[in-house]
């Protein structure tokens, strides 16, 4: 599986938010306890300086970390988990591009109908809505960490129109991008 193009700060935000969308794509290893977890683990959060991130289960275990007993990151709960992880990795790495379902299916090597059905069965979302959430996550990160304008962020995160960007952002964050930026600065 290809590595995700997420910064340390973005992965840190995902574990603080207990974001299930990234489960299986990376693992949080705590140097002081020698335990690793899923991003969605509800255990007490470690200090930032004690955290390392791994993209591969074998590498985190070879580094001497043991699996968290609470979130059990070493177990796959579905036979389709690898397929879903590959799709999510592709979406995270290509969110800036104009993607259609067939592009994703071609990359994964299965039919678009089968991909849509399995992905929805496993995540309760379509690849399109999942991609939109990834784009909004990236936009929120950019709003907090850069001085780019809302329009620049709109296009930087792969949205094709500002109206769609504003609608999607408000739907997921319950505020406009400008309001979000203002709240994150307080």
UniProtKB/TrEMBL annotation:
Pfam families: Ada_Zn_binding, HTH_18. GO terms for biological process: DNA repair; methylation. Residues 85-183 form the HTH araC/xylS-type domain. The keyword Membrane does not apply. Keywords: Activator, DNA-binding, Methyltransferase, Transcription, Transcription regulation, Transferase. Its cofactor is Zn(2+). GO terms for molecular function: DNA-binding transcription factor activity; methyltransferase activity; sequence-specific DNA binding; zinc ion binding. This is Ada metal-binding domain-containing protein. The lineage of its organism: Bacteria, Bacillati, Bacillota, Bacilli, Bacillales.
């Amino acid at each position: 599986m290809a590595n995700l193009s997420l910064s340390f700060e973005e992965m840190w935000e995902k574990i603080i938010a207990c974001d299930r969308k990234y489960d299986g794509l990376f693992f949080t290893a705590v140097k002081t306890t020698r335990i690793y977890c899923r991003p969605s683990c509800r255990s007490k959060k470690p200090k930032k300086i004690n955290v390392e991130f791994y993209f591969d289960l074998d590498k985190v275990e070879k580094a001497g970390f043991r699996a968290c007993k609470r979130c059990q990151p070493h177990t796959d709960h579905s036979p389709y988990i690898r397929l879903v992880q590959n799709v999510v990795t592709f979406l995270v790495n290509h969110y800036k591009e104009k993607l259609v379902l067939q592009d994703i299916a071609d990359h994964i090597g299965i039919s678009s109908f089968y991909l849509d059905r399995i992905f929805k069965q496993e995540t309760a979302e379509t690849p399109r809505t999942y991609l939109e959430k990834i784009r909004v996550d990236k936009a929120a990160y950019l709003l907090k960490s850069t001085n780019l304008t809302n329009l620049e962020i709109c296009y930087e995160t792969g949205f094709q129109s500002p109206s769609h960007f504003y609608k999607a952002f408000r739907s997921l964050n319950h505020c406009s991008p400008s309001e979000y930026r203002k709240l994150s600065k307080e």
